[in-house]
Design a protein that fits this description.
Number of strands: 4
Structural class: alpha+beta
Order of helices and strands: EEHEEH
Largest sheet: 4 strands, mixed
CATH class of the largest domain: Alpha Beta
Pfam family, one: DUF7054
Distance between the termini: 72 Å
Number of helices: 2
InterPro entries: At4g22758-like (IPR040358), DUF7054 (IPR055482)
Radius of gyration: 19 Å
């Protein structure tokens, strides 16, 4: 007589997806399997842990609140941390650090020297990088 092992409960029901997350400045994408019902915040957390475990560069840190996840096929807006990863119908994503906010000096004026240049828009960064490479040839 054969005994069958019961499958362990694997969280909420739903399809599993193999996703790829590109990190700006990193050599290649991170790939892992997620449940389509997982929240974007959980996916960012998993991506950061996987990235660190693999010893990738540049070092990103581990605070998921410092990052935004973009779906290149859905436009230039970052995904909400509370939406599900499967809601976009995509499997390729881009992980970017959030732009630093302007710091205020004691008298209330913004300190322009401490702000990051640019808008933090990853598409603008890629276009600028491509234009520099093309113009240097």
């Amino acid at each position: 007589m054969l005994l069958y092992k019961q499958k362990k409960h694997q969280g909420p029901k739903g399809n599993r997806l193999l996703i790829s997350i590109n990190v700006l400045g990193s050599a290649g994408p991170i790939r892992f399997v997620v449940n389509e019902e997982q929240h974007v915040a959980d996916v960012i957390d998993t991506a950061l842990k996987s990235y660190a475990r693999e010893g990738r560069l540049p070092v990103l840190g581990s605070d998921l609140n410092d990052f935004l996840l973009y779906c290149p096929s859905a436009g230039s807006d970052a995904l909400s941390p509370w939406e599900t990863i499967g809601s976009q119908g995509a499997r390729n994503f881009m992980l970017c650090k959030k732009p630093r906010s302007e710091k205020m000096e004691d008298d209330g004026r913004s300190n322009e020297a401490t702000t990051r240049k640019g808008t933090g828009n990853w598409k603008a960064w890629i276009n600028k990088s491509l234009n520099l490479k093309i113009s240097s040839h």
